[in-house]
Every structure is written in structure tokens, then in C-alpha cells.
Amino acid sequence: MSYWQQSRSPLYSLVFTFPLFLVYEAGIFALSDQDLPSLRNGADVLMRRLLESFGLIGLHGFSIAFIIGIIVVFVIQKRSGREVRIHGNTLFFMLVESFIWGGALFGLLVMWQVLFMIPTSRLLIQQVVLAVGAGIYEELVFRVLLITGLAAVLKFIFKWERIARQVGAVIGAAVIFSLFHFVGTFGDVPHIRLFMIRFVAGLLLGGIYSLRGFGITAYAHSIYDLIVLTQMITVH
Predict the structure, then answer these.
(1) How many angstroms separate the CA atoms of 198 and 191, rounded?
(2) What's the pLDDT tens digit per position in 201-215?
């Protein structure tokens, strides 16, 4: 199996993303309970509430679900006869590729003088945790679940061909991704320019996800956010 196939597989995506997930959870654990309501990434809260509705109550419900997900994907892939060995060089090149995509994303959005990650927390550790969390949870919700779900709906109802439904799903997910940032207590004040910023970002991330899978997209998103954070700290 080639690098391009391996790096897009669910097993590699989950294993590759696991360190990012651990950094986020460790950061959450290190912060006080008073910081959690405003610090939790919106998509993170959405996922945890969904899990709670199925009985997985508490902050660690998603942690358990994530680990179970890796095990399930490993077993499924092994039973199907596909390779389950994880190659370190593949993970390394996935990291290099993520930096390339993250840098390209930053270059494109800065060229248009837009930034879709605006740190609002005062402490550096809070800002880093938010940046990492956005990569994991927003990509899981708005790319993996939403694009997959919308593509399935377009296939079932409208009988669209694969490329057409993937493009339609990416566009639809980008619209919902942008609107999501205006929802809730900590959402932005609705404005057409902000909507377009997030919409363009959603299109770019949706495109990366369609081409390269969840793991690389999650890292690219987090790397982009960390680049923005570094630039803001350096300027100020």
C-alpha cells in the first residue's frame, strides 16, 4: 500500500491524531474548572453532549470513545485482511505534509487578509488548548461526520454521482461550519464578512479532508491556528 493510501486510512488517521488529542486533554486537565465552560471548543461540547445522551456522562466520555474507536478500526482492518502495522516513516511524512497544508492555509487566508482563528483567552495555555482542540473536534464534526453524512443524503435522495455529491457535501458543510461560529454564548456577532471568512476556510479544509483524510486535516487546522497564535503573540 502506498503512502497516499496509508495516510488516508482511518487507522493511520486515528493513530496520527492521538498525540494531538492527548495534548488537548492534558491541557484541559491542567486548567481550573472555572475555565472549562468558556474554553471548551464548541464542537467538543457538541460531541460530549451527544455522548452524554447515550449514557457516556462526564468529561472523559469522549476520551474513552476515541480509544475504543482506534481499537474497533484496528480489528475491522485486521479482519478484512488489510495491513495493520503502523510505519513510523508514514507518520513522519504525514506530519511534514500537515505542516505544508497548514502553512498553505495560512498563506491563502493571510493573502486575503482574513483569519478564522481569533484567540480570545488571556492565558497562553488556554489559547494553545483551543487551537489544538479546534483541529480535532471541528474536523471530526464538520468534515468527517458532516461531509460523510451530507454525501450519503445526496446519494440516497438525489442519486448524485460520487464527485458531485462530495463537492456538494463540502460546500454544505462549509456553510454549516461558518454558521456554527455565530451560535451560543461565545459565538461571534453575525456579519457577512465573518461568515465568508469561515465559509472559505470550511471549503479549504473540506478540500484537504476529501483529498487527504481526517488525520492530516486535523493537524493542518491545528498548525494553522498555532501559526496565527504565534504571529499575534509576536506582534503584541
Answers:
(1) 11
(2) 999 999 999 999 999
Interatomic CA distance for residues 210 and 143, integer angstroms: 9
The amino acid at 221: H
- Give whole-number Cα distances, 55 to 41, 48, 52, 194, in Å: 21, 10, 5, 36
Rg (CA), the chain: 18
Helices (H), the chain: 3-8, 10-30, 36-39, 42-53, 61-79, 88-111, 124-133, 139, 146-153, 162-180, 192-212, 214-235
Q: Quote the cell numbers at residue 195.
A: 461568515
d(CA 47, CA 44): 5
pLDDT tier at 150, thresholds 50, 70, 90: very high
Instruction: With CA atoms as reference, report the closest residue to 147 among 213, 97, 197.
Output: 213
Is residue 12 a contact partner of residue 218, using CB atoms and an 8 Å limit?
no
Write down the residue that cell numbers 474554553 correspond to: 39
Q: What angle do CA 215, 221, 224 make, to 5 degrees?
A: 135
* Rounded-to-integer distance, Cα 167 and Cα 163, Å: 6
Q: Give the tens place of pLDDT for each residue, 74-128.
A: 788 778 877 788 999 999 999 999 999 999 999 888 766 555 555 555 567 778 8
Closest CA to 13 of 83, 90, 65, 80: 90
Angle, to 10 degrees, between the axis of helix 214-235 and the axis of helix 88-111? 50
For 50-66, give one letter per residue: b (16+ CB within 10 A) or e. Answer: ebeeeeeeeeebbbeeb
Contact between 152 and 44 (Cβ < 8 Å): no
